[in-house]
Write a structure and sequence with these properties.
Blueprint: H1 2-10, H2 13-78, H3 81-88, H4 92-110, E1 114-119, E2 123-127, H5 142-150, E3 154-160, E4 163-174, E5 177-187, H6 190-200, E6 203-208, E7 217-220, H7 228-232, H8 235-240, E8 243-246, E9 254-262, E10 268-277, H9 279-314, H10 320-329, H11 344-397, E11 401-405, E12 411-414, H12 416-422, H13 426-429, H14 435-441, H15 445-456, E13 462-469, E14 475-486, E15 492-501, H16 503-549, H17 557-581, E16 589-592, H18 593-601, H19 605-610, E17 614-619, E18 625-628, H20 630-647, E19 653-660, E20 664-672, H21 678-682, H22 700-709, E21 713-719, E22 722-730, H23 742-750
Parallel strand pairs: 17-19
Antiparallel strand pairs: 1-2, 1-5, 3-4, 4-5, 6-7, 6-10, 8-9, 9-10, 11-12, 11-15, 13-14, 14-15, 16-18, 19-20, 20-22, 21-22
Length: 751
């Protein structure tokens, strides 16, 4: 033992320095590699778990979105008066004939699978998708029973005869009486899961849950692998909370997520398993591990070589001069060496002193230069930062779109004005290869490639006017100017572009042109009407005096009476034209929509009773107030309702109803037509006289002008033997409508 200890103590100082240093270098490098790999693996596993949870939430959101879509379709159909009427009459064949084309269209365009009508107290009335299986009691369908009892729509997953489906069920009312319900259902099977896999990538498997430990597969996108639920018996655990397995022992190349799927009542009806392939991650980790080991070995070798030379410098068998020289070499000595005898050591001492002085001088020069250089770098850096801030501030605050595209069409940058103007966030745009070509340029792929080729290869910019739809579907007009940016060698780098919004300018140009044209047309119409009035009045007066001067049995008295009547008819038409082009200004206030309709109906009650007309009113309480000119709207509604009363045959029905939607209040007037041709319907608002005594009160052109001045629309169409008039008015007139020229509105009526 003593001999061994003596041998260890006797080794050279160089190895005494090298062995511990190499040992600590190896341990330190190994520890760092291990900690780095472990930390990287933990971070990757954490990200994988977050990604699996994200896929699970996307899956649940997709199911919810389908349920809301089914509920929206069912709600729209439930409000269809024809469906309400046929279901209330329990006319299965007529309902089937009416709804079958719509079912086929929805199935083709949206992929619905169930289209089912139910009637109280819980009976299947008509399965449009399987008409031969209708008529049985479906009390086992909790969703249908809840809708019929609660009279409110539901959406979500539910079991049915065809299995688990995404369903939306809505009650149907006729005359405020529950007559049944309608169900729209989407499939919840392999096609649904394959669509998710095609969009997101992972495999999806759905297991049924009907109680017990048995978990049959409802649908799966996996073809070769066995779902994790069968291998790990994790079904029961996933019903209580989500189960995540990263690289399970049986398969280290997979990541698995299992979570519950709930129905519309919040009860577990299934478990979804999401399987994600992590082979690329495993390969990347192995590559990283090999690289870190290689870097560690190279670092140890370099350290060994460095320490070898340093140790040699420290252990040279020299005396004080060598030690001083080492201090000078290491920069630890500032005072001069005391000269010794004039021998080789003395000469070396003088040389070292000379070297020390030169080194000190050089060090001072370097320090001075470093200070000057540091100051220059700081000044230059400050200038660059200031320039960048100015450029960034300018780009961010410019009232125009600034963008940058790469050569493959990928959007690299958009300024904040783009988001504020079009509504698309940078996350939706930046990094998207197809966004600019499809949303902004609006070109087909082939056309987009031609434009990019012109910019990238031919290095030619363009300037074009284009229409762009924002995120909410509103159309805007821009001047788009794009130019390719080249490097010092003349090679393409990227595309810089700006877009100037000229939507308001275009609108003002069109409005000014249209207003001027209509002003001239209105002046011509007014002048023409006034010029015609005097000759007509003269002709009518003379014809009337000549007729009155003849005896009752005179031969020409009847002909003169016809002349008088026709002149009066033309005077009425002129009166309508003059009233239609007479300027007026809106006086906006808050008025009640239903009260306007009732106020227009009230003076007509005597005429309605005189003609034995059956008036049916359905004024929705939701049709509340709007900002409008109450007096003018009352006049418009009065003319329209008077026309309906005059036109309706004796003893027929007159339907008057109102409703409200998200943007408009709607008035609907329906009655049987009395000898109206399609041409009469198309020219409903043209100035005309029907020949009836009541026709003198009908200023229909003015009515439509008033409605248009409020930003609304008035439409007339035939539905069977009925004439339907629909008036839509916004809750407030658009900005600037109060000041529009009446000539413009008159042109819209006659177009």
């Amino acid at each position: 033992m003593l001999n061994m200890l003596h041998k260890i103590q006797s080794i050279s100082l160089k190895w005494k320095l090298l062995i511990p240093f190499l040992l600590f270098s190896f341990l330190g490098t190994t520890s760092l590699v291990y900690m780095g790999l472990s930390s990287q693996q933990e971070l990757i596993k954490k990200e994988e778990k977050n990604e699996l949870r994200w896929f699970y939430h996307l899956f649940i959101d997709k199911v919810t979105q389908k349920g809301k879509q089914a509920l929206s379709m069912a709600t729209i159909l439930a409000e269809n008066p024809k469906i309400q009427e046929l279901l209330a009459e329990r006319d299965r064949e007529a309902l089937m004939a009416y709804i079958l084309p719509l079912y086929r269209q929805l199935k083709k365009e949206f992929g619905i699978r169930q289209f089912h009508f139910h009637i109280p107290p819980g009976k299947s009335f008509l399965r449009v998708h399987a008409p031969q299986r209708s008529g049985e009691m479906i009390s086992y369908r909790r969703g249908v029973m809840d809708v019929l009892k609660g009279r409110q729509g539901i959406q979500g997953l539910e079991w049915g005869l065809t299995g688990l489906g995404i369903r939306g069920i809505v009650p149907i009312f006729a005359q405020e009486t529950l007559v049944g319900s309608i169900e729209i259902g989407f499939p919840f099977g392999k096609s649904f899961l394959q669509a998710l896999k095609a969009t997101w990538g992972p495999d999806f498997t759905v297991f049924e849950h009907r109680g017990g430990d048995f978990c049959p597969i409802l649908a799966t996108t996996m073809e070769k692998e066995r779902p994790f639920c069968f291998r790990q018996n994790a079904f029961e655990r996933s019903l209580e909370q989500a189960v995540i397995e990263i690289a399970p022992p049986t398969d280290s190349h997979r990541s698995v997520f299992m979570g519950p799927v709930k129905d519309y009542q919040g009860e577990n009806v299934a478990v979804v398993e999401i399987d994600m392939d992590r082979s690329s991650i495993v390969k990347r980790l192995a590559k990283t591990r090999d690289l870190m080991v290689l870097v560690g070995i190279i670092g140890i070798c370099i350290s060994f070589i460095f320490v070898w030379f340093v140790a040699g410098a420290f252990i040279r068998p020299i005396k004080e001069m060598v030690s001083n020289a080492r201090e000078i070499a290491e920069g630890k000595r500032e005072r001069r060496i005391t000269p010794g005898p004039e021998d080789e050591i003395g000469v070396l001492a003088h040389a070292l002193n000379t070297m020390l002085g030169a080194l000190q001088l050089r060090e001072k020069q370097i320090e001075d230069y470093a200070k000057t250089l540091e100051k220059r770098v700081q000044e230059r850096t400050a200038d660059l930062v200031l320039s960048e801030e100015k450029y960034r501030t300018l780009v961010d605050n410019l009232p125009l779109v600034v963008y940058r595209l790469l050569g493959d069409g990928t959007t690299e940058f958009v300024n904040p004005y783009f988001t504020s103007k079009l509504g698309f966030s940078p996350d939706e745009v930046v990094g998207n290869k197809r966004f600019w070509q499809e949303q902004i340029w609006g070109y087909e792929p082939k056309k987009s490639e031609q434009v990019l080729e012109r910019l990238v290869k031919e290095k030619q910019g363009f300037r074009a006017e284009r229409g762009v739809k924002d995120k909410w579907g509103h159309r805007l007009t821009f001047i788009d100017h794009a130019i390719p940016v080249l490097d010092d060698a003349g090679e393409f780098k990227w595309i810089e572009g700006i877009m100037v919004d000229i939507t308001e300018l275009k609108r003002l140009q069109e409005k000014a042109l249209r207003t001027e044209e209509m002003r001239v047309l209105g002046e011509i119409s007014s002048r023409f009407a006034h010029e015609m009035r005097n000759p007509l009045a003269t002709a009518g007066g003379f014809a009337r005096r000549l007729r009155d001067s003849l005896r009752e049995d005179a031969q020409h008295r009847k002909l003169l009476s016809i002349i008088v009547e026709e002149v009066a008819r033309m005077e009425k038409i002129l009166k309508i034209i003059l009233s239609s082009i007479e300027p007026f200004t809106l006086s906006i206030s808050r008025v009640n929509f239903n009260e306007l309709v009732q106020g227009a109906l009230e003076p007509l009650k005597k005429q309605i009773l005189a003609k034995d007309i059956i008036l049916e009113e359905s004024l929705s309480p939701a049709a509340g107030s709007l900002h409008a000119d109450g007096g003018l709207l009352h006049k418009a509604f009065d003319n329209l309702l008077k026309h309906a009363v005059v036109s309706i045959p004796h003893g027929e029905r007159l339907f008057v109803s109102t409703r409200a939607d998200a943007e408009h209040l709607v008035l609907i007037v329906r009655h049987k037509g009395d000898g109206l041709s399609q041409e009469d319907v198309d020219q409903f608002f043209y100035p005309h006289i029907t020949g009836k005594a009541e026709s003198t009160i009908l200023e229909l052109p003015l009515s439509k002008i008033i409605i248009h001045r409020h930003g609304g629309t008035a439409m007339v169409y035939q539905e069977g033997e009925d004439i339907v008039l629909t008036v839509e008015l916004p809750y407030a007139p658009p900005a600037g409508m109060e000041d529009l020229s009446l000539d413009t509105e008159y042109e819209e009526v006659n177009s």
